[in-house]
Amino acid sequence: MVKEIEIEGKIYYECGVCSLDYAEREWAEKCDQWCSAHQSCNLEVIGHAVGAMGKIKEEIKE
Ligand SMILES: [Zn+2]
User: Fold this and answer.
1) Residue 3's beta-bridge partner residues?
2) 6 alpha carbon to ligand 1 midpoint, in Å?
3) Residue 21 C-alpha to ligand 1 middle, in angstroms?
4) Of 57, 60, 42, residue with least CA distance to 17
C-alpha cells in the first residue's frame, strides 16, 4: 500500500513494499503494484523515485 509521508513540508508517496519514495502518487502506485506482484523492482518505475527518505527519516528519529 502506498503511504504518504511528509518531509520538510513536502508530501511524498512511498511504496509499501520496497520503501522507495516518489514525488508523484501515480509512480508510487505503479511501484507498489509491481513490487506486490513480482517481488522485485521495475527499473523503469524506480527511475522515477526520489530516494528512500522514509527510511532516512526513521533513522533520524531513532
Ligand atoms: Zn516498490
Assistant:
1) 14
2) 18
3) 9
4) 42
Q: How many angstroms separate the alpha carbon of residue 34 from the centre of ligand 1?
A: 7
CA of 48 to the centre of ligand 1 (A): 11
Could you read off the pLDDT of 12-33 as tens digits, one per residue? 999 999 999 999 999 999 999 9
pLDDT band at 62 (very low <50, low <70, confident <90, very high): low
